[in-house]
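Consider the tokenized backbone below.
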């Protein structure tokens, strides 16, 4: 049965309720970790910056040294900070990247029994959509980056082309301008790329396909031809998937394992 919605906007609270985000009472370590994150954001701290001294934080949050360290450990696991030993050590803020998200995702994928085929299938769906959105948006900064990539695609000699192909997919998996989509797209790509490096499964012939297809995809995006960009990106991803399936099914069958 549908629940009737009465009152339109007036039926909603007019601001975010305080209780939101507290799904359950967090452990002390999680609470401390959250407080530190809020502080990083509110103080505008950047990667490389140090966190305030331990004693100061302990006093302000009214927590023990053990709780503070547990909280820091939680953040270190996610890649938000790094605790360095030594006299000039201490917690510093790290540059979070899609690879950090990929690490966390790998834990979940392993627990849910995902294979690298599942990861690839998700990429086959995401990258063409990215190409479409990018062609429609024509974001000046993105277009400039794509123009640079296109130049490299056309001029880099075969022996050093691998890095360029990699950069192309890195960019192409995060072109939507929506941080949620871009992070997920780029994390999946980072994830797959790391796996590829590990199993050393980047055959010449796969790179030749990239070399042929990437410039066409980039040109369609730059020309604002969303249909063509999406179609070409979909064909490229599908060909890559088919190739991997035919020549290295073991690679696709492999179950994801947690990379920390
Ligand atoms: Zn490619």
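A designed sequence for it:
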């Amino acid at each position: 049965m549908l629940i009737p919605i009465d009152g339109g906007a007036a039926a909603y609270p007019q601001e975010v309720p305080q209780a939101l985000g507290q799904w359950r009472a967090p452990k002390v370590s999680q609470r401390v970790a959250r407080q530190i994150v809020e502080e990083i954001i509110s103080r505008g701290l950047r990667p490389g910056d140090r966190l305030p001294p331990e004693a100061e934080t302990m006093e302000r949050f009214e927590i023990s040294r053990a709780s503070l360290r547990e909280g820091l450990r939680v953040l270190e696991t996610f890649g938000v900070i790094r605790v360095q030993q030594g006299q000039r050590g201490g917690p510093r803020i790290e540059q979070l990247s899609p690879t950090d998200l990929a690490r966390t995702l790998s834990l979940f994928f392993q627990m849910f029994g995902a294979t690298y085929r599942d990861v690839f299938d998700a990429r086959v769906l995401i990258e063409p959509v990215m190409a479409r959105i990018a062609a429609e948006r024509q974001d000046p900064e993105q277009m400039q980056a794509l123009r640079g990539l296109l130049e490299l695609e056309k001029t880099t000699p075969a022996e050093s082309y691998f890095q360029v192909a990699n950069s192309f997919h890195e960019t192409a998996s995060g072109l939507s301008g929506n941080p949620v989509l871009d992070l997920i797209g780029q994390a999946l790509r980072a994830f797959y790329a790391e796996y590829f490096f590990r199993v050393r499964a980047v055959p010449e012939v796969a790179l030749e396909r990239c070399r042929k297809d990437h410039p066409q995809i980039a040109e369609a995006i730059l020309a604002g031809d969303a249909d063509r960009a999406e179609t070409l990106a979909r064909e490229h991803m599908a060909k890559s998937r088919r190739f991997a399936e035919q020549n290295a099914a073991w690679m696709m069958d492999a179950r994801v394992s947690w990379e920390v």
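The mean pLDDT is 89.
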